[in-house]
Amino acid sequence: MRILKLELKRILTTRTTWILLGIALILSVCMAYIPTTFYASEYTDENGNQVRLSGLKAFQYQKSQKAGLEGEVTPKKVRDALEAYQNCLNEYGVKDTYDLPEGVYGERIAPYTSLIHGLKEAFADPKTGMAPSLMEIDLEKAEDFYSKCDERIVTLMEAEQRDHPAAQEKAVSMYHKVEKPFTFYLAGSDSNRMDYQLLLSFMILLFCTVIAAPVFSSEYQTGADDILRCTKHGRGRLGMLKIISAMCICGTAFALCSAVYIIISNCLFGWEAVKTSIQMIFSAMNLADINMGQLQTATALAGLLCVLASVSLTLFLSSRTKNMVMSIAVSLLFCFLPVIIYVAMPNDLGTWLNCIIPTGGLGMQSSFLYAMADFEFLNVGDFALWTPDAYLFFEAVAIPLLIGLTIHSYSTHKIK
Amino acid sequence: MELYVNNVSKQFKDKRAVDHVTLNITPGVWGLLGANGAGKTTLMRMIAGIMKPTSGRIEYDGIPIDRLKDEYRDIFGYLPQEFGFYPEFTVKNYLEYVSALKGLTAKESRRRISDLLEQLTLTNVCNKKIAKLSGGMKRRVGIAQALLNDPEVLILDEPTSGLDPAERVRFRNLLSEFARDHIVLISTHIVPDVEYIATRNAVMKDGRLISTGTTEELVKLVDGKVWSAMIPTKYLPEYEQKLRIVNLRNEGDDQVSIRYLSERPRTEDSVPAVPRLEDLYLWLFPQDTLEREG
Q: Is the pLDDT of residue A414 over 80?
């Protein structure tokens, strides 16, 4: 315990560490606030004056507009929303909202958009997947929204997982377990909040990488390792304690920053929004039976697992590198590797690789969060693994594996 | 208590740094002498167990150190040539950290650190960051960490580099006392540091051990090869060309007293001088520079 305490003290007294941890905490507060700035509203007041609102005021205005729409998304609410939409466009004799006079969209359509956004997906052509325009959807059938969703998931998965019946079956089974009717709150359907949580997580991952990368390599470089290696506990035990302390610092930093982000974000937007079904955030067809609050928590926990796996990888690289700059550079490369893979390999191989590499869960394009909103599976014969589960599985396997390799690498480090 | 270097060699890609060295190190101060590249540091790193010999093995009390593992490290203290430290740590924090790694209890650690800080005159800077200390102070912190566990085997690679003369004297006294019942192996370029305190010396050249013995035994190798003479100052450049002058001193009246190495006297008034270990060193490693006084 004494060595662990001293090792923690050593890392925490490193200037770079506390500067990065300080920045991470400030970023958590700032990034929780940024999504509030995306709200803007315009309306005409009782005196006929045009009023423009932005930020939290605009959000509160939009929330008041949707006061009666929040809560359970009943089939009747969906029908009423579609009716309001179609009536408005018919009234102005247009086929698209772009053709509406200025201000009309904001006042008459915008309040309903969240409720009708899933209709297009549910009523898409089963063969082509082409979505109809909202004006083409029969008002009387709108109340069949949920049964249409249950039908549509089958054809959607046939298209998404054409050659993998196991994946199709699993997806349909998952979707049937999704609680319906969905629940909707304006703030809960704001995907920006989730995007910013992911962005924050990725930035903390970068900071953790910079903190962890020199743990072994800087000691090789400065020669400090020569002294430590000659002490009684200076090999396996010290290696283990260095790993534990790096993991503790990075894990705590990530958990703390994620908690700060979630608490501030929910305080700004209102805690009731956490009940929003994720089908109201991304796609009505999303397979997970969770709400926004659970998604925030799952993203944070999966992020924590990813950070721990990534730090394990970084420590392993550090134990294999004799130069601090090299260990930081290679470790950072691994942080950006998911983006490179996503762009360079937009196929099954890319999906596999991104699930396997420890940093994949917080990739900016192919993360655990986006996997939750997607319909991808890793298929091996008759076995199908949903990609969010795959991220968690591979990260959980990577942590002990990489820790073991790091301890072995550090303990046996000798100039050959 | 015996450290046995048994026919140890170390081959790097294109160089044999240590070539079949056999050395039986017993309690006392051992001086390891040799020019740069002689293989001293490589040999010490192998004794420290942080470098693997290409062939041969190192034994402590008859057991290979590879097999002893942390039992060996428990009785071992090491100061490498390049003292890598944590810049963020204060002297005290650093010594606490190393003492914890050496398995000292918190109480033992406090007592030992306090003693060493005093012995090495570091008490006043114990709360200063190591990065802010002078080179000599850093070196003393390095020596302190090596002594923390009162090691049976103490290996010091160039421990006196950066120390001022007073610090060197204090260090020599500290080691002399310490080495009574411990094995101390010191590698240094500063020959007088080991000359006064080493019970035995080992001389390395091009990776090989070329001689071992007490200082008295070793200096006999240059007996009759050390001369002193007075020469006119104006002829000094000429003599510097043709003689291996190891020391010179201006005596006034345009006269210079020189000490030089040669198989035979090279000036008419040359007289034999009492050889010192440094003379042997310079005889064996002629590329090293001479010392000037006055």
A: no
pLDDT of residue B128: 94
Cα distances from A301 to residues A255, A258, A337, A369, B107, in angstroms, run: 8, 9, 21, 11, 41
Same domain (yes/no): B210, B260? no
Chain B residues in contact with A226 (beta carbon < 8 A): 45, 48, 50, 78, 80, 82, 84
Handedness of CA A229, A230, A231, A236 (dihedral sign): positive
Please tell me the predicted confidence (pLDDT) of residue B4: 95
Task: Annotate A69-85 with b (16+ C-beta within 10 A) or e (fewer).
Answer: bbeebeeebbbbbbebb
Test A229 with B82 for CB contact under 8 angstroms: no
Interface of B with A in 28-57 (CB under 8 A): 45, 48-52
Query: Has residue A259 got a pLDDT over 80?
Result: yes
Which of A221, A231, A416 is closest, CB to CB, to B98?
Answer: A231
- Where does residue B60 fall: left (phi above 0), alpha (psi -120 to 50 degrees), or beta otherwise? beta
Q: Is the pLDDT of residue B96 over 50?
A: yes
User: In this predicted structure, which of A185-189, A298-302, A384-388 has the lowest mean pLDDT?
Assistant: A185-189
Whether B152 has a pLDDT exceeding 50, the answer reads yes
CA pair distance B267, A204, nearest whole angstrom: 77
- For residue A243, the tally of other CB atoms under 10 A from its CB is 24
B240 and B166 fall within a common domain: no
DSSP state of A261: H
pLDDT tens profile B211-249: 899 988 888 989 999 999 999 999 899 988 888 898 889
Residue B205 near residue B285, CB atoms below 8 Å: yes
CB-based contact B116:B98 (threshold 8 Å): no
Cβ-based contacts of A14 with chain B (< 8 Å): 88
- Do B159 and B252 lie in one domain? The reply is no
Assess contact for A164 and A384: CB atoms under 8 A: yes
Q: Is B147 helix (H, G, I), strand (E, B) or coil?
A: helix
How far is Cα B193 from Cα B226, in angstroms, rounded to an integer? Answer: 20
B76 interfacial to chain A (CB closer than 8 Å) = yes
* pLDDT, tens digit, 9 for 90 and up, residues A135-192: 888 888 888 999 999 999 999 999 989 889 999 999 999 999 999 999 988 887 888 9
Chain B neighbors of A1, CB-CB under 8 A: none
Residue A21: how many other CB atoms lie within 10 Å: 21
* CATH number of the domain within which B117 lies: 3.40.50.300
Same-domain pairing of B207 and B239:
no
- DSSP structural state of residue B253: T
| Same domain as B144, residue B36 | yes
pLDDT of residue B292: 44
User: How many Cβ atoms from other residues are within 10 Å of residue A394's Cβ?
Assistant: 23
How many C-beta atoms surround the C-beta of residue A304 within 10 A?
20
Q: Which domain holds residue B288?
A: 221-293
Question: pLDDT-derived band of residue A416, with 50, 70 and 90 as boundaries?
Answer: low
One domain for residues B108 and B45 = yes
For B65, name the nearest residue in chain A, comparing CA atoms only.
A230
Q: Which residues of A touch B76 (CB under 8 A)?
A: 230
* ipTM computed for the complex: 0.85
Q: Are B147 and B252 in a shared domain?
A: no
Q: Which of B51, B73, B103 sits opposite A415 (nearest CB)?
A: B51
pLDDT: is B272 or A117 the higher one? Answer: B272
Instruction: Supply B33's token pair.
Output: 């002498």
Q: Roughly how many angstroms between the first and final C-alpha of chain A, as a whole number?
A: 32
Domain boundary among B170, B193, B215: B215
Instruction: Give me the number of domains chain B comprises.
Output: 2
B89 & B141 share domain: yes
Strands B208-213 and B200-205: antiparallel
Residue at a domain's end among B215, B233, B251: B215
